[in-house]
Amino acid sequence: MTSFFSDINYGSLLVLWLALAVDAVWRWPQSTHPLTFMRFLVRQMGRKVLPSSSFSPSQHYISGSLAALVLLTPIVVCLAILVYMAEYPIFFEAVIMIVLLDFGYQRQQYKKVLKSVGRNKKSLAREMVGTITARQCDTLTDIGIAKAAIESLWLKFLYLYCGVIFYFVVAGPIGALVYRLLLLTTWQWHFRTPTMRYFAIPVRKLVSLLVLPPAFIGALLSLLVSHPVKALKAFRRCSAKDKTSLLLALLGGALNIKLGGPAIYANRKYRYPRVGGTEEVKYSHMLLANNTVTYAMIAVAAVASLCLLAISN
After folding, report:
1. pTM above 0.85, yes or no
2. How far apart are alpha carbons 222 and 230 in whole angstroms?
């Protein structure tokens, strides 16, 4: 038993299981969560160094790149040194992973939306869905609320949950930390905000590449616990070939629901293609989407555990 915990790879497995267990049963209050402070820092940095609209796009690119580098590098380096010098690094690795794997908050807010929709409290449902998506939610219909909630839960499962676990397995807690901070940064500097249009591009392009492996693995495992044939048919029918539309098409096909469509960001409507199945989203589909993501979470955790066990042998 002592050798089990002292082995670095078995220690990584223990850290993963602990983080998964904490995320499943406990919610770190957002008011005291370290990532809440990081969101504040990222927003403030963006406001401080964002060039005015009179500057060229290249100046925005340079400012966005340097802002992310200057803000995130010291945090990553300090935590890496702390873990490296600690007598019991597994403790700090566990704390880092518990902080990074905060998908439980997304599920909690989704359930609040689900509860509000079930009780026909449309205003409250709009308010709750606004906490987990960047789009404007004040004019959403019942179908719009349900679609926005399902899309947010699905994409954040792929990008946040699968992403953090994937980079923890591949590069350890520091690798997961770098990924999560970059993901947080690109969400705070949202590219649909007019003033952030060029400023956010460098980080957004980097994150767009980083999310591909975990999103692919997460989507594949999700198909295995749902309806892979329907999902793949919807994937092939998808007229748009961007990453988001294709991922939404997979879930929409698996649940036989229409996802995508128009969305409003910063008072401007964007007409995204409708993808997925043939039925309009209903309350029962919200329940089904929640169950599908839950089963996919179990599958991702199991595969990640098997990978760490294989590495340790």
Report:
1. yes
2. 12
